[in-house]
Amino acid sequence: MIQEPTRLQRLWLCEAIRQRETHAGPLDDREANRHAQRAAKDLPGRIQARALFLARRDGLVEALDSLLGGARLALLLLFLLAIFGGAGLAFASVGDGREPINVFWALLGLLGLHFVSLLLWLASQLFTPASPTALGRFWLWITRTFSQKLMHKTARDQRAPNLVPALFQLLERRRLVRWLGGSLVHGFWLVTLLACLVMLLGLFSTRRYGFIWETTLLPASSLIRATEWLGFLPALVGFPLPDASTVLASGTVPVITEAARQAWAGWLLGVLVVFGLLPRALLLLVCWLRWQLGQRKLTLADSISDYSLLAERLQPVSASTGIVDPAPAQLYMPHIANASGKATPESRNAAHLSSNVGHLEQQHTQMLVAIELNPERNWPPAELPAAVMDGGIIEDRNQRRQFLDRITLHPPQRLAIAIDSDRSPDRGTLGLITEIAPLVDAAYIWLLPPQVPPDGNQARLKIWRESLDALGMLYNDTPPWHWLETGRE
Amino acid sequence: MNDLLKFVVVGHTNVGKTSLLRTLLRDSKFGEVSDRPSTTRHVEGATLTVGGEQFATLFDTPGLEDASALLDYLEDLERIERQKHPNQRIDAPARLELFLGSIEARQRFEQEAKVIRQLLASDAGLYVIDAREPALAKYREELEVLSGCGKPLLPVVNFSATGGRLEEWENALARLNLHARAVFDTITPPIDGERHLYESLALLLDSKQRPALEQAVSALEKQNGKRRQSAALLVAELLVDCAAARHSVAPEAEEEAEAKLFVQVREREQKCVEALLDLYAFQADDARLHTLPLSEGRWGDDLFNPETLRALGIRVGSGMAAGALAGAGIDVMAGGLTLGTATAIGALVGGGAQTVRNYGSRLLNKLRGQNELTLSDSVLQVLAVRQGYLLQALAKRTHAATSRIPPPEEADVARSDITDPLQSFFKQARAYPEWSSLNEEHELEGESRDALVGKIASSLMAFSADATQ
Ligand SMILES: Nc1nc2c(ncn2[C@@H]2O[C@H](COP(=O)(O)OP(=O)(O)OP(=O)(O)O)[C@@H](O)[C@H]2O)c(=O)[nH]1
Ligand SMILES: [Mg+2]
Question: How many Å lie between the alpha carbon of B98 and the closest alpha carbon of chain A?
Answer without folding.
Answer: 19
